[in-house]
Design goal:
Helix content is 32%, strand content 39%. The protein is α+β, with helices and mostly antiparallel strands. The strands form two sheets. Strands 1, 2, 5, 6, 7, 8 and 9 form a seven-stranded mixed beta sheet that branches. It has a two-stranded antiparallel ribbon with strand order 3-4. Helix 2 packs across helix 6.
Length: 223
């Protein structure tokens, strides 16, 4: 078998393997409601990622993804940009000073400057996002070689990603938590390689974002 036929054979074999594998994702969403919610077209929300003393931080890209989901569509809710809010409210929502509990929020709102800014922004709810995506140890093996006639990779790899996030909703009228929504999304990814590696990635974080964002939208609207 000449080189051209060999490459064609490997390409066909790799295509068959790729078609036989599908990166699967499962997503579970749980909602816990403690109070009634509603929002008018003149009001908006802000979605913030939890940060604790700069040692732990919810991914900014995930926070932005959820904000985009909540604000999209004909039923979208206006969302104030996270960084705009943090800059305007400095230093009240910095990692070391941000309210961790609603009792801390109540103390913060006794400060006239903080209360005035919140009212000026027209913010009805603060949503705190907390969580992360974790990748488990993968299985399989893969080796790559480079020679005078070319190179390639051979083998098979697999791994699991697990995204766990929770959104807690604070009502700025009552200064209490009105509920929370959690999502758990996990999936198996594959990397078959016959000359060329082809990653089949499970989009766990994207699914967690879409599920959480759409559920938040319904929660805040009270439906």
């Amino acid at each position: 078998m000449n080189i051209k036929n060999t490459k064609n054979f490997y390409g066909l074999l790799l295509s068959l393997i790729a078609l036989s594998l599908t990166a699967c994702t499962t997503t579970e969403i749980d909602e816990f409601r403690q109070g009634a919610t509603h929002i008018s077209s003149e009001e908006r929300i802000v979605i913030l990622g939890r940060r604790q003393n700069n040692n732990y931080e919810t991914e900014g890209s995930f926070v932005q993804c959820v904000a985009n989901t909540v604000s999209s569509g004909q039923d979208g809710i206006e969302v104030m940009a996270e960084q705009e809010f943090l800059d305007a409210m400095f230093p009240f929502f910095e990692p070391r000073t941000a309210p961790m509990r609603t009792s801390h929020l109540q103390e913060l709102m006794t400060l006239e400057v903080a209360a005035q800014k919140i009212e000026e922004f027209g913010i009805e709810y603060i949503i705190w996002l907390d969580g992360f995506t974790e990748r488990s140890e993968g299985g399989g093996s893969m080796s790559c070689v480079i020679g005078p006639g070319g190179g390639g990779c051979f083998g098979f790899g697999t791994w699991t990603d697990d995204s766990n996030f929770e959104a807690e909703v604070w009502d700025l009228d009552t200064l209490e938590s009105v509920g929370s929504i959690s999502t758990d999304s996990n999936g198996q990814s594959y990397m078959p390689a016959i000359v060329i590696p082809i990653p089949l990635i499970a989009r766990v974080e994207a699914n967690a974002c879409n599920g959480l964002g759409n559920q938040l939208k319904q929660f805040i609207k009270g439906s």
